[in-house]
Amino acid sequence: MNPAEFANIARSEQKLWWYRGMNAILLALIDKYVAEKPGRVLEAGSGTGYLASLVQSRLGWTVDALDLGWQGLQYARRLGIARLVQGDIAALPFPTAYFDAVLSMDVIVHLERGEERRAFVELSRVLREGGLALIRVSALDVLHSRHSTFAGERQRFTRERLMEEAGAAGLEVLRCTYANSLLVPVALAKFRVWEPLTKAPAASGVSPVAPWLDRLLYLPLQAEAALIGAGFNFPLGQSLFLVGRKRASGASGSNRERTL
Questions:
Q1: Residue 254 lies in a domain
Q2: Domain around 212
Q3: Going edge to edge, which strands form the sheet with 127-138?
Q4: pLDDT-wise least confident of 5-14, 26-35, 172-181
Q5: In Å, how far from its chain's centre is CA 240?
Q6: Which of 82, 103, 117, 178 qualifies as a FRET site for 135, CA 20 to 30 Å off?
Q7: How far apart are CA 156 and CA 162, in angstroms?
Q8: CATH number, domain at 44?
Q9: For the chain, how far is it from start to end, CA to CA, in angstroms?
Q10: Under a CB-based contact definition with an 8 Å cutoff, are residues 62 and 107 in contact?
Q11: What is the DSSP letter of 257?
């Protein structure tokens, strides 16, 4: 990630509509698929540590926060995350079958195309059999933006490719849905019309907006969280969420989502 983005995120992620909405969707998926409190959880690519602190305080999880750079981990320490590890998602410094659950939010998209398989394999490796992986990635190349370039995003996924990578790494796909879907028309107008017209350089999209606009933009994500929590899958969106379960050794399975 662009180092300058850490400061932007740290200032914004507790209150900005996008973070509140994405966290609401993640928590809805956790409520649906995590039956009991996991003993040990990894957030691979923890950024500033806010999400780790959120699930630690709200759900009582014990979280190991891993990030490639020490800058993000310094923010995490200020938020009270005690278990901090500097490391690479594609070469995790943990034993096999060490965690009950792993989280990775918008991290794999920062890898060069072709390197994502190593990250999926590593996330699966450190999970115990039956453990859960909750993964979010940016979706659909047509939605790449100036912010994507600024943040160091190197790839975006389709639902089919995300499920294929998870399945190849030994994860049984329980759920895979697009999200941040209701605002796609607005995003297309901004990214494919307005940004090319203005020809402005790459810049962060993480910045506060007027309170009334923040509330207005949060409403679609709040609605999506309720719908996704109820089992509805969106057919397209700016992000993808995947819930996968580590298959038992020697078990085979397709990469098709289970019918729930």
A1: no
A2: 3-246
A3: 83-86, 63-67, 41-44, 99-105, 127-138, 239-246, 171-179
A4: 5-14
A5: 8
A6: 82
A7: 9
A8: 3.40.50.150
A9: 36
A10: no
A11: P
> Residue 182 and residue 35: Cα distance in Å, rounded?
29
29 dihedral zone (left: phi>0; alpha: psi -120 to 50; beta): alpha
Residue with tokens 């999926």: 120
What's the pTM value of the predicted model, to 2 decimals?
Answer: 0.93
For residue 256, being part of any structural domain is answered with: no
Could you tell me if residue 252 is inside a domain? no
Q: How many structural domains are present in the chain?
A: 1
Give the whole-angstrom CA distance, residue 231 versus residue 212.
30
CA distance 174 to 111: 24
Q: Where are the beta strands (DSSP E) in the chain?
A: 41-44, 63-67, 83-86, 99-105, 127-138, 171-179, 239-246
For residue 60, count other CB atoms closer than 10 A to its CB.
Answer: 8
- By the 8 A CB rule, do 2 and 152 touch? yes
Please give the biggest Cα pair distance in the chain: 54
Residue 149 lies in a domain: yes
Rounded Cα–Cα distance for residues 127 and 111 (Å): 21
The model's pLDDT over 183-217, given as tens digits with 9 standing for 90+, comes to: 999 999 999 998 888 887 777 777 888 999 999 99
